[in-house]
Amino acid sequence: xxxxxxxxxxxxxxxxxxxxxxxxxxxxxxxxxxxxxxxxxxxxxxxxxxxxxxxxxxxxxxxxxxxxxxxxxxxxxxxxxxxxxxxxxxxxxxxxxxxxxxxxxxxxxxxxxxxxxxxxxxxxxxxxxxxxxxxxxxxxxxxxxxxxxxxxxxxxxxxxxxxxxxxxxxxxxxxxxxxxxxxxxxxxxxxxxxxxxxxxxxxxxxxxxxxxxxxxxxxxxxxxxxxxxxxxxxxxxxxxxxxxxxxxxxxxxxxxxxxxxxxxxxxxxxxxxxxxxxxxxxxxxxxxxxxxxxxxxxxxxxxxxxxxxxxxxxxxxxxxxxxxxxxxxxxxxxxxxxxxxxxxxxxxxxxxxxxxxxxxxxxxxxxxxxxxxxxxxxxxxxxxxxxxxxxxxxxxxxxxxxxxxxxxxxxxxxxxxxxxxxxxxxxxxxxxxxxxxxxxxxxxxxxxxxxxxxxxxxxxxxxxxxxxxxxxxxxxxxxxxxxxxxxxxxxxxxxxxxxxxxxxxxxxxxxxxxxxxxxxxxxxxxxxxxxxxxxxxxxxxxxxxxxxxxxxxxxxxxxxxxxxxxxxxxxxxxxxxxxxxxxxxxxxxxxxxxxxxxxxxxxxxxxxxxxxxxxxxxxxxxxxxxxxxxxxxxxxxxxxxxxxxxxxxxxxxxxxxxxxxxxxxxxxxxxxxxxxxxxxxxxxxxxxxxxxxxxxxxxxxxxxxxxxxxxxxxxxxxxxxxxxxxxxxxxxxxxxxxxxxxxxxxxxxxxxxxxxxxxxxxxxxxxxxxxxxxxxxxxxxxxxxxxxxxxxxxxxxxxxxxxxxxxxxxxxxxxxxxxxxxxxxxxxxxxxxxxxxxxxxxxxxxxxxxxxxxxxxxxxxxxxxxxxxxxxxxxxxxxxxxxxxxxxxxxxxxxxxxxxxxxxxxxxxxxxxxxxxxxxxxxxxxxxxxxxxxxxxxxxxxxxxxxxxxxxxxxxxxxxxxxxxxxxxxxxxxxxxxxxxxxxxxxxxxxxxxxxxxxxxxxxxxxxxxxxxxxxxxxxxxxxxxxxxxxxxxxxxxxxxxxxxxxxxxxxxxxxxxxxxxxxxxxxxxxxxxxxxxxxxxxxxxxxxxxxxxxxxxxxxxxxxxxxxxxxxxxxxxxxxxxxxxxxxxxxxxxxxxxxxxxxxxxxxxxxxxxxxxxxxxxxxxxxxxxxxxxxxxxxxxxxxxxxxxxxxx
Length: 1194
Fold this sequence. Notes:
CAND1/CAND2, two-stranded antiparallel sheet, mainly alpha, single chain
C-alpha cells in the first residue's frame, strides 16, 4: 500500500516536469496504475491526483491533454464522491472558457465521466448527485450561450446523459424541457438537430406531464406553421419522439397524422422526406393507432416512390439503347451524377417512401393480398431507379414483402394464397432483374442475388421457366474481373439455392461448370468454400441418383474438371477448416454420383479420406462422406482397399465424447455392414462390438437406438458374429434398457426388431426360451420388484415380438401365462406381466383357441391391485383386436351386463377402437355407438370421460355419418353456443375443446375468433358468486369454483398466441393478461409465461403497457409469506417469484424497456434485495446459455 502511494507521488512529481515526454510517460503510467483493481488511494493522494489531472487538461501539449482525459474514466470509479464533484465542477467551468481547445477537452472529459457512471438501474447515489450537478450547469449553458460551439457540446452531453441516466433526473425534466424547446427555432440547423436527439432521449424516461407539455407545444406550433424551416424541424421532432417512445405517442396520432398528411402536399422535398420518415416511425412504433391510416400512408408512399421530376424515364426499350450509349460515354455519366447530387433532392423523398413501404409491409401481415395487388407491381416497376441508394431500399422493401409471404402455414391458403400471387408476379420480377444483373454497380447486383434467393425460398421451383434468362447473369458476375469477393459469394449462394430448389433437367443446357470450377480455385477461402458447396449440388444435378429414369445427360465431359478442382482442395493441408470440410463433402458426393467414371483415381482419393478420418478436425465430416459413398445405390464403389483400416478407426470413435460423431459413426457402420457384408471380417466386427456396451443406456436414447439398429443389421447380415454377444455385457445392457421406464418410441421399436432378428439367427444359448427367461426372469425371481410400471409394458412388448418370430412356441407360453394369472400364489407383479404379455401377444396372434382366457381375464378384473385391474382391461382390449368377431360382441355384452365393471370394460373398448383396423370395425360401429350413448348419462365423471374418448375415436372411423350425429347431441347443434351454456362445467369443457382445436387445427377457429373472443375473455374474470366459504373444523377455507374455468380460458389465450397471433387485438388481450397477473397462483404462473412469449412476439405493444404490467410483477416479487405458514406455501411463493423474474428478464429483452421509470425503479429494487438479485442473476444466466444453445443447434 505504502509503495503504491509512494509510486504515485513519484509520478505526480514527474508530471510537473518541463519536459513534455516526462509528463506524457508519467500520465501514461498513472493511467495503467488506475486501471488495476487493487489500487487504493488515501484521501491525500486522491486530492493530489485529481488536482494534477485537472491541471494537465490545460497542458500545452495536445497528447498529454488526451491522456489526461483518458485517465478520468478509471479515476471516477476509484475516488470518493466529493472528489468526483470537484472534477465535474471544474469541467463544467472549463466548458464555458474562451479557449476553444480547453472547451473541447472538457466536453470530452464530461462525456467520459458520464460514460463511467454506474447505470441508473444500479441505484447508485454517486450517479444521481453527479448528474444533478451537471444538469443545472448544462441547462444554463444551452439557454444563455451566444457561442454556438459551446451550445452544441452542451446539447451533446445532455443527450448522452439523458440516454444513460434519464431516470435519475426526473425532477429536472421540466427545466430541461423548457431550455430545449426554444432551441428548436435556433438559426443554426446543427443546434436544432442535436436538440431533437436530446428530446428523443428525454421522452424515454420523462413523466407524463412533461410528455404532454412537449406534444402540445409541437402540435400547436405545427398548426400555426409559421415558416417552412421550423415546420420541418417540428416534424423531425415528432418522428424522433415516435422512434424513441412510440408507445407514448400513440394516443396523439389522430391529431398528428392529418397535419403530416397536409404537409406532404406542400412542394418542398426536404419537408416531404421528413413527413414520410415520420410515417415510417408511426407504422413501426404505434401499430394499433396507425391502423386506420395505413391506407393513406400507402397511397402517399406509392405516389412519391416514383417522384422524379427532373428525369425522363422514356419507353423501356429506348431507355435500354440509351443506356448502352451512356455506357460508352464515361464523361457524360460523370456529369449526370454531379447534377443529380447537387440540385436534385427528390431521391431523398423516393428513398423515404421505399423505407416507409418496407415498414408497412413488415408490420402488417394481414394485408398481404392487398400488398400484392398494389405495392408489389409499383416496387417492381422501380427496380430501374437511377440512384443506387434508393434502388437498394426498393429492393429491400420487396425482400421484406417476400419474407412476409414465407410462412406457408396451412391456414394461410385462402382463396388465392400469397405464394400463388408471387407466382403471378415472377415474370415481371425476372424481367426487371434481368437488366439489373449486368449493371456495373456491385451493390445492385448483390441486391438482385438476394432477391432471387428469397424468391426461391418462398416458392421453390418458381424460376423453372426463367433459368435460361437468369443463368447468364449469374455467370457474368462469377467471371467478371471487377466483381468484389462479397458479390461472388452472394452469386454463388444464390446459385446454390436455385440449384437446390429446381429440377436437375432445367440446368442441363447451361455451361455452369467452368465458372464454378474457376471459383473453387479462387485464392479467397470464403469464395472457395461457397463454390465447393455449389459444386456438390452441381454433381447431383449432372447425374441425379434419385431419378435414374431421367438420367439422360452425358456427364463425362465435366467429370474431369469437377474432380480435378475438388481433389486439389482436398489434398491441401493448410487451408481453412470450412474449405477442408466442404472439400470432403463435395468429393464424397462426386464419388457417390460419379464414382464409376473415376477409374484409377478412385483408390488414391479413398486413401486421402482415410488420412482425413485420422484427423480430429475433419473426422466427423469424413464419416458422413464415407456413409454417403457406402450408400451409393447406383454404383457400388469398391471400398475394400480402405475397410481394413477404416473400420477399427470408426470403432474407436464410439468411445469419443462427441455425440454427433457417435451418431454418424453408428449410421455409417450400419450401412457398411449392410452393403459390404462380404468384405467385413469377424475381427472388424469384434472391434466394434467391444465398444457398444457403454452406448446402450437410458441416458441417451437416440444413441442407444442407433446401436440397437446396428446390432439388428448384424443379426441379419452376419448372424455368426452374434454368438459372442451372449457372453459379453451387450446383452445385459440391452435387458436393463428394456426395464428402463424411459424406453419408448423409436428406441423401443428398434429393440423389438432386434429381438426378432436375434431369435431368428438360431444362435446357441440365445434361443426363444433363453431370451424369454432373461426378459421375464427378474419378475418371477421376485428378488427385486421392478419399480416402474412402464417396464412391464416394455417387457411384454419384447415377449410378444419374440413370440411372433417363433409362432411354434406361442401356444405353450400363452398357456403358461394363463396359469400364472390363475395361480393364487402368483405375486401382483407376475400377474401384471402375464396379463400384459397376453394382451401384446393376442394383439397379433389369434388366441381364441384358449378356452379359459375370457374367464381368467374377467376374474382379474376383481383383483385387489389397481395395476392388475388396468392391465386386465388393456389385455382384454388388445386380445380382442386379434380376433374381433370372437371377442368384440363378448366385450359389448359384458358392458351391458356388468354395471360394476363398466369403467374397466369401457377402457377395453377404447383400446379396441383405437387399435383395430377400420375395415374390421365397420360392421360393429352401430352397436358400439348405441351402447356408448346409453352410458353418456353415467354419474361418474371418470366413466363419462372414457365414453367421450370412445365416441371421438369411433367418429373418426366413419366421420361422414357419425360427425353430424355427434353435433346433433350438442344442445343447439352448434359448438360455439356451448361457450354460453348456463352450466359452468359445460363451458369449461367447451373451452378445453376450443383449446385443442386452436392447438392442433387452428384453421378451424381462425375465422370464428371475432365471435369467440368476447366469451373467452369473459371467462377470465373472477366471479364473486362462485367463491364460497367452507368450514373445516375451527378453520374457514375459501373455495373458488370458477378457478378451473378461468384456468381453461387462460390456457386458450396462451395457445392462441402461437397459432392465431395476427387475428388478436393485442391491446385487448393484454388487458386480460394484466388481470391474470393479480389472480390465483395457477393463473399467475400462466400469465407470466404469456408475458415472456409476448415480449418476443410483439414487443412494441408490450412496451406501450409496460408500466401497468410492472406493478403486479413487483407485487408478486415483494410478497412475504406468513412466518407460520406450511412448507408448501413457501415453495409456492418461491416458484412464483422465479416465474415472475423470468417474465421480468423477458421484458428486459425489449430494447427500450429499461428506460421506463417504473421498470428502472423495480430493477434497482431487485439489485438492492440480495434474495431477488440472486434469482434474477441465475435466470439471466440460464436464458443467455439457452440462447447460445439455440444458436448452436440452428
